[in-house]
Predict the 3D structure of the following.
Amino acid sequence: MNALNLKPNWTDVDRFYASLMDLHRGRTAEESEAINTRLILLLANHIGDVEILEQAMAVASEPFGPAPA
Amino acid sequence: MNMDKPFERKVYPFRPCIEQTAHQKLRHPVVVLGAGPIGLSAAIDLKLKGVPVIIIDRENTVCEGSRAIAYSQRTLEIWNRLGIGQRIAAKAVGWETGKIFYRNDLLYQFNMRAEPFQRTPAFVNLQQYHLEEFLIKRCEELGIEIRWETTLVDLEQLPEGGVKLMLETPAGSYESECDWLIAADGARSTVRRLLGLEFRGKVFDERFLIVDIRMKGDFPAERWFWFDPPFNPGQSALLHMQADNVWRVGMQLGVNLADDFDVEREKSPERVIPRLRAMLGDKYDFELEWASIYTFQCRRLERFVHGNIIFAGDSAHQVSPFGARGANSGVQDIDNLVWKLVRVMRGEAPVALLDTYDLERGQAADENILHSTRATDFITPKSPMSLAFRHAVLTLAHKYEFARPVINSGRLSTPSTYAGSPLSAEDIDAFSTDTVPGAPCIDVPLLHSGQPAWLLDHLGGQYVCVIYAAQAQHNALLATIRKLPAEVSTLVISPKDAPGNIVDHEGLFALRYDARPGTAYLIRPDQHVAGRWRAMDATRVAAMLPTKQLVMEANA
């Protein structure tokens, strides 16, 4: 089974984050939600591998908040 | 309680200058406006290069409060060249570890050290008032006149070149002239205002409180940054150690402040002490030294050179404080500017060489503004969605390494690489290291006549051609070296285990510069790489010197 990469794999993380923030600037909550949903679908298709996607879903749905160190 | 004595600023009294006492009108080669870290560094650099210079400042003492506190390795290297680095490093607090907290938890820590063999810590913290006193002392040693309590009230660029200055002092006003004016007069630059220049960029509404406290704390010398801490809910906070047991506390106050928000009241001990108690608990005694509330801007002048007036530091570009990019970039402006200005003044290069200052430091300013704007956006999320993403990043980062690089509590100052500058040769040979043309040189340990030495101590001040070659090759090289332009000095570094005057005994020069026998680097007077080749070629080296031809071609 292929493993979800949980190590940094960014090429330009600050640019990515700034673009993401720009994407949502001035949007309503509904617009932002719609954009995020589409974004997930676009990236999921790009990744393709369903096992990777399911692992990502599992991590994303872990209880929020940092666990005690 | 055993506290160090509070810092008392030295007062530098006004003295009438020669123009006033002898009623002489003088024309100074260079006048530096502003006795802050940038102006003082500029004057020292000029004087060390043999240029007479005076400094004008409207105050009579160093700055109030710690202000700029974190200085990068590159800045220390420049101050080393100015003969002041060791004194600063000895007084300052070195650090390289940063810790990131979210709410109650430590998320992770990071290390700023770039190289295991580094000569200085990645950063040192020192109150700006100490720094300024060191720099003023260095000016005194060098016989640089600082005209205190002297205010620039007007100026005029003279049609035949040079600048006329109208100055006001406690003993009346006078006129003076200079060939060149370096405006290092800070974010609220008088020169900028007098020239009516626009300072364009982004202004942030967020208020921040910074406080200097004296405290004997058992916190290590690290940078601690909190997102949404329990003692400052919904905001951020920063803790930094400085010299003499002085600590810098930074607290974000937010944007949506109470209607009756009052800056003076908010920075009063009655308001500040409870905030600090909430942060530090009751375990530590502390005394307040200085408090300030500020907003910040990320903006710059479109051009840094206006005729015979040159802007450097905050007068030219302003950044938010996250990342220590203000004073550091200002000192690097000076490092870039002074050797060029001296060449122009001596007629060794055309005035157009100063366009490369504008270009290279303009790029650096854009880089600094970009980093500092992004950090500010991360630290002060403006919308529910940006807050949601940040929360996701912070909660993931504790367990998952991939999210850590996303966290932006300030990308700490790194020197700029002047890629695309006419002073940087394009690589024509293959190299695997990031010591590309335009990049600052990485300092590496060497042996000089058997004694430990550092590369950077052999570079700077003039163009240096560094040749990596074993002794056996030296004779063959001599013929080529003789063809080099006279102003270029050579530094031959021998591989480890090979005999030679200067030896790369740990192989770190070879490793970090991808040097093989015969490899040559041309290094600029500011210790940035001008070009690198697999074999030294005097014609190629000569083509990179900032002569009339190169600069003109580049501007064509």
Q: What stands out?
A: The mean pLDDT of chain A is 92. Helices of chain A lie at 13-24, 29-47, 50-60. The interface with chain B takes residues 5-10, 13-14, 17-18, 20-21, 24-25, 27, 29, 32, 59, 62, 64-69 of chain A (CB under 8 Å).
